[in-house]
Amino acid sequence: MSDPIDFLRADDYLGPVVEDHGPIALEPAADPFERLLVSILRQQVSMDAAAAIEARLFDRVEPTPDAILEADPETLREAGLSASKAEYAQNLADAWIENAWQRSSFADRSDDAVVEALTAVRGIGTWTAKMFLVFGLGREDVFPVEDLGIRKAMWTVVDEELTREEMVETAERWKPYRSYASEYLWRTID
Description:
190 residues, mainly alpha, Endonuclease Iii, domain 2, Endonuclease III, domain 1, 2 domains, 13 helices, 0% strand
């Protein structure tokens, strides 16, 4: 198998982006639960707002399933979580404990099977599950077309306003390294 950076450097769309930004690494998160929790916090808010909420939450509550599940909902709201996000965080903690999930729980599952398992938890949608695949598990071939940043970057890099379906078709050219391609796309709009 080829090197993902060399592979993408040869692409007409991403080659210039790779040259501008240099090599990148895709590493699984040290703590998969915490990373999935962070993805919930980042749902439908700016990165700055999410970072502030994350800092306040982790200052008040340890980012573990037990601590999140036992946290008073008012403490979660004081950290900046809406009532629904507080519920989603606790739903995640409950599912994590109930399923005895850990990194190895997902190792032999396909991307689709991981998405299916996670989206069964109220408050975790496809976007959140795909963020977990990329940033939590370090999977190399995920294309999160649900992400607004990815869509904006695609329009810029391809220089055309593609539909989501057309974006997915275009991203086929980056298989088996669509997570790396996504990382480069995000860098074009940072």
